[in-house]
Amino acid sequence: MINLDISKTPTITPILRQRRADQTAYTADVSITRNGAVFDLTGFAISFEGITNKGAKIIDDSGIVVNDAVNGRFTYSMPAEALNDVGDFKSAYFSLTKGSERETTNNFGVFVLASADLTEDESKNYLSEYEKMLEKLRELYESMNIDEIKKDIDELKGEMNETKEDINKQLEDTKTEIQAMIDEVTKTIANKDIAVRGEDNHFTANMIVDKPIDGSLKTRVTTVTDFADIAKAITTYPGQWANNGKNIANAPFASGNYT
User: Fold this and answer.
1) What is the rounded distance in angstroms from the CA atom of residue 205 to the CA atom of residue 215?
2) Residue 136 domain-assigned?
């Protein structure tokens, strides 16, 4: 059991010994504490981070198996790729990450034993699949030209503002045209309403009437033979009266039309 404390309390440094390029590495039981008390690993992502004897960087989470998070316990098996360099690791520890929170344990020793039947390979960095994805994201971010992107965004904002101004102008012009149409229709309706309400109309040209006039100017045809009857009716129905040329008794004049 490897006991590690995230408060970095000085203790006897445990040492993990591995054979170079072993395909089946030794699985170590690990216990994490804080100031000697059990540290709950629930929700934490755990990675091994180390630097080999020749300076290769090792970051690995593929060999981590959490078997008792509440009591801070898990097992770890180092990948064969991390065991190429014979000798002591320059540093070795576990990192614990949850959201923006990051903790690391104190260092422990890793010693890689030589293998007599294998030629020594060149040391190289080893990253787990998770770390490889993070590394690609970092490289992508670093390769981006932030100033150029900001310039493109500013240009796009400018074009959007110009388009907005054009649309507002078009809307204002349309609003003016519609208001002019409304004013014209309102004026026309008002003129027609004057006639309907019987208000005086002022004509500046000849008035042409296509339909018979029905009202005080209407001509009424009568069959009465005495003017007294017409005179009596005129008080009720003013206008022009006609008897179709018949003689009317007591008429003041010979014409057949009376008003």
Assistant:
1) 22
2) yes
